[in-house]
């Protein structure tokens, strides 16, 4: 996730580990508004009714997002809700929008806040959504978890800020076009950074022509390549939109896909008793 602001906030990021984590958060820079309700799997994860992170509905009662989003609600899930079926976060109140409380969330076991490895989390909704809804539909997971080739054109979607210095999240859903960057080149760009280590389970993406990028508020949102869900927003920069510091995404590799499927297939009684790696 990336912090809001640029030079001032970047300086703040150097002062504490908490700020460093906050610098690694994400919204859409140099993107465009999508057609309303054309991305029915998009989820706005909210605390006290305010958007904090994005997410992807991957099954009727399961949302996939970034593990670092937990810092927004790590004390309690009582104030956390998932807003589904929205385009505008303030104006679509009666247009098929669902607000559902979170039953439980589970973080990938080896998530590392410092290096950002394993930055992925599952959230179980308290109730299933209607599979026949026109505004809320799950996005299928990729079948194989194969890597994505450099220069593949992709898109990232979210309600994050729309300028690197922005402080207000976008009210309407935005999307930006980006391209996958060679992993070794990306690793070189972050070689001097202590708060991110690029691994095989990550993807880097940028748009060197427009500066399009994810930013604050986009964390946990989907990266789609050729229409397939291949990753979730983890972070990048600062600042947002800097092609020398591309956006970083948790890749839905075989490791993560196997973990996701094992969790969502647990019997209810087993899942209820699950305490290890819970987000609270």
UniProtKB/TrEMBL annotation:
<keyword id="KW-0645">Protease</keyword>
<dbReference type="InterPro" id="IPR001314">
    <property type="entry name" value="Peptidase_S1A"/>
</dbReference>
<dbReference type="Pfam" id="PF00089">
    <property type="entry name" value="Trypsin"/>
</dbReference>
<keyword id="KW-0378">Hydrolase</keyword>
<dbReference type="InterPro" id="IPR033116">
    <property type="entry name" value="TRYPSIN_SER"/>
</dbReference>
<keyword id="KW-0732">Signal</keyword>
<feature type="signal peptide">
    <location>
        <begin position="1"/>
        <end position="23"/>
    </location>
</feature>
<dbReference type="InterPro" id="IPR001254">
    <property type="entry name" value="Trypsin_dom"/>
</dbReference>
<keyword id="KW-1015">Disulfide bond</keyword>
<dbReference type="InterPro" id="IPR018114">
    <property type="entry name" value="TRYPSIN_HIS"/>
</dbReference>
<keyword id="KW-0720">Serine protease</keyword>
<dbReference type="InterPro" id="IPR009003">
    <property type="entry name" value="Peptidase_S1_PA"/>
</dbReference>
<protein>
    <submittedName>
        <fullName>Granzyme K-like</fullName>
    </submittedName>
</protein>
<dbReference type="GO" id="GO:0004252">
    <property type="term" value="F:serine-type endopeptidase activity"/>
</dbReference>
<dbReference type="GO" id="GO:0006508">
    <property type="term" value="P:proteolysis"/>
</dbReference>
<feature type="domain" description="Peptidase S1">
    <location>
        <begin position="28"/>
        <end position="265"/>
    </location>
</feature>
<dbReference type="InterPro" id="IPR043504">
    <property type="entry name" value="Peptidase_S1_PA_chymotrypsin"/>
</dbReference>
């Amino acid at each position: 996730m990336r912090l809001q602001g640029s030079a001032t906030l970047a300086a703040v990021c150097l002062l504490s580990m908490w700020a460093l984590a906050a610098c690694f958060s994400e919204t859409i820079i140099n993107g465009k508004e999508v057609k309303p309700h054309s991305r029915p799997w998009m989820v706005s994860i909210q605390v006290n009714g305010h958007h904090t992170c994005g997410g992807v509905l991957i099954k009727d009662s399961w949302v996939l997002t970034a593990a670092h989003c937990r810092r927004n609600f790590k004390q309690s899930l009582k104030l956390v809700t998932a807003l589904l079926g929205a385009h505008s976060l303030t104006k679509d109140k009666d247009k098929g929008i669902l607000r559902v409380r979170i039953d439980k969330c589970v973080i990938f076991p080896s998530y590392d806040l410092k290096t950002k490895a394993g930055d992925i989390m599952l959230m179980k909704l308290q109730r299933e959504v209607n599979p026949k809804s026109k505004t809320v539909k799950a996005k299928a997971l990729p079948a194989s978890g194969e890597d994505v080739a450099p220069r593949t054109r992709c898109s990232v979607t979210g309600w994050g800020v729309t300028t690197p210095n922005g402080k207000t999240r976008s009210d309407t859903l935005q999307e930006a076009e980006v391209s996958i960057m060679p992993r070794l080149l990306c690793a070189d760009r972050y070689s001097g950074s202590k708060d991110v280590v690029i691994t095989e389970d990550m993807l880097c993406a940028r748009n060197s022509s427009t500066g399009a990028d994810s930013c604050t508020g986009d964390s946990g949102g989907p990266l789609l390549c050729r229409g397939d869900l291949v990753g979730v927003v983890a972070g990048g920069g600062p600042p947002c939109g800097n092609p020398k510091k591309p956006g970083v995404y948790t890749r839905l590799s075989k490791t993560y896909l196997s973990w996701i499927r094992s969790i969502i297939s647990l019997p209810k009684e087993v899942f209820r008793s699950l305490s290890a790696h819970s987000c609270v």
